[in-house]
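Supplementary Methods S3. Complex input for the NAP-bound model.
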Amino acid sequence: MRAGWFEKTGPAQDVIVVGEMNRPEPAAGEVLVRLHASGINPSDYKRRANIKMKPEFPRVVPHSDGAGVVAALGAGVTAYKVGDRVWVHSAQWARPMGTAAEYVSLPQAQVRRLPDNVSFEEGACLGIPAMTAYHAVHIAGSLKGKTVYVPGATGRVGAYAVQFAKWRGARVIASTGGGEASAKIIRDLGADLVLDRKSADLAQQILQATDQRGVDHIVEVDLPGSMGFDESILAERGAIVSFGAASAPTVAVSQTGRRARNMSLHFIFVYMLDELTFDATCNGVIAAAQEGALKHRIGGVFPLEKLADAHHHAETTSGTGHIVVTM
Ligand SMILES: NC(=O)c1ccc[n+]([C@@H]2O[C@H](COP(=O)([O-])OP(=O)(O)OC[C@H]3O[C@@H](n4cnc5c(N)ncnc54)[C@H](OP(=O)(O)O)[C@@H]3O)[C@@H](O)[C@H]2O)c1
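Predicted complex, serialized as structure tokens:
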């Protein structure tokens, strides 16, 4: 099969190779998928680019997310038949063989049905981005009638968070550092109010928009950089859900002086959800997609042969949508 891989870490153009390798065979309990699309996430290019660490395996076929059709079934798998349209998640988590290849063989729990109204390219965005957003929106209970704040709403995760929160009946306030063009994109995703994240009086604007109550739930892309701000806009009993920590490895939480005395703080690492949460998350993502509640922001499609270009593009752009590789 054709596949892309790296055997050392470094810049995409220096370390990514595309060539022939043996097609995997499905072990018992596994599903072999003929992939048509593979999604790139920050974790994929950060691991490949991190020259302080060796690759986790002698050869890594990168990427966790993908979509395609079932090509063969391992012993004991009865939930699928050859030809079924599916999406997959966590393919390269703690495994050498990800989705930047024509085939991947995965435990059946990592393989899910792809709704008919979702293309393979769109299905390759459902793993890390949609699952993280779904869990971040649902982790603190019902959102009906509540207000959710989503900074970074042009992001892969943020854009889905806006849509899941609206789907669940919340009012969504979002922000972007990308100006009016980005604000329009976020309004088109369904956000009720989009503010400038660089505005000096952003907190006052959010408090004004909530009659001084504050927001009930924050889907936070940069907790260390935003904790103080988030504390200043959170309503009593509000929840902050952190899925990213780009600016610093630690965060300072106020013991006194924040608005929400009964604040809860949640941390998400999507690869390591428990089995029930994985199931609920995947089923919820599928239900929202089937109902037509999700727009998928694809920012670029590259053929597998151009995998290095695809990585370079993904890591040098932000907020422009998903970068998908096709095969
Ligand atoms: N914990 C997990 O399981 C998990 C899962 C997925 C991703 N992540 C991590 O989450 C981060 C985002 O991933 P992604 O795929 O959504 O990235 P992305 O598509 O590049 O989006 C990041 C967005 O964040 C916004 N942004 C940048 N700096 C910000 C700041 N200081 N405050 C608020 N917003 C800011 C930008 O939007 P504007 O410029 O429009 O404001 C940008 O669109 C990455 O670090 C990734 O590794 C973690």
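The longest helix spans residues 275-290. The longest strand covers residues 30-40.
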